[in-house]
Design a protein that fits this description.
Blueprint: E1 22-26, H1 30-36, H2 40-60, H3 65-95, E2 98-102, E3 105-110, E4 116-121, E5 125-128, E6 131-132, E7 138-144, H4 151-154, E8 169-173, H5 176-190
């Protein structure tokens, strides 16, 4: 893991060694990243509930609507501002992120203010999962054998709630199934004894090692 200043190859901290080549490269879909990582829909819903509750109180208490209007305008303004800020953060995070799969490793380059690059050799990846969202985007979490990576250091490119043993994640991919197949074939071709076990998981099996993984 290292911070980068200049990229000789987009998304990579240095030139590739002899015998290594890029087989896929891409970035998160920013709208999906804003929803899933920044939770813009939940925050927007929260402020919508506050406004609806205030309106209900005005109606049931037979209060003057004009008197409650300034407070409603403040709540609406704060809500719009917060959602806009989170959406902008999602857009910036997606723009600063490049995921790379070579024939030997997975590389995550990310970070808005403090750009970083995480290298994950195939030999350190013990399993990979797939979750496809309703909008067609999806996530590929990577279970690693050993890691010194912290959850906050990886966020938002990390599987949610795995704080004790963080799992780096290729997040909000526009074509997750295609990327999963590419990764599965690369793992099977590189690591001795490993076979690609990619299968279309159900909603309850998206992270199940037996059916939702790309590991042996």
């Amino acid at each position: 893991m290292s911070e980068y200043a200049n990229e000789p190859i987009r998304g990579l901290p240095g030139l590739l060694p002899q015998g290594e080549h890029i087989i896929w490269q891409g970035s998160p879909a920013w709208r999906s990243l804003a929803r899933k990582a920044m939770h813009t829909h939940l925050v927007g819903g929260y402020f919508a509930v506050l406004i609806a509750w205030s309106l209900l109180n005005v109606a049931t208490a037979h209060k003057n609507f004009a008197g409650a209007l300034p407070g409603l305008e403040i709540t609406l303004g704060v809500g719009v501002g917060v959602v806009t800020l989170l959406t902008l953060l999602g857009w910036l995070a997606a723009r600063a992120t490049v995921y790379t799969i070579t024939n030997k490793r997975v590389v995550l380059r990310f970070g808005i203010a403090l750009p970083k690059c995480v290298n994950l050799p195939f030999s350190q990846i013990s399993a990979a999962g797939l979750e496809v969202h309703g909008d067609g985007t999806g996530d590929l979490p990577l279970a690693v054998k050993e890691t010194r990576l912290g959850y906050l250091h990886l966020w938002p490119h990390v599987r949610p709630w795995r704080v004790g043993k963080p799992e780096p994640m290729l997040r909000s991919l526009p074509e997750p199934r295609a990327v999963a197949r590419i990764l599965g074939e690369a793992l099977a071709a590189t690591v001795p004894g490993r076979r690609s076990a990619f299968a279309e998981p159900t909603a309850a099996q998206v992270f199940a090692p037996a059916k939702g993984s790309l590991a042996a």
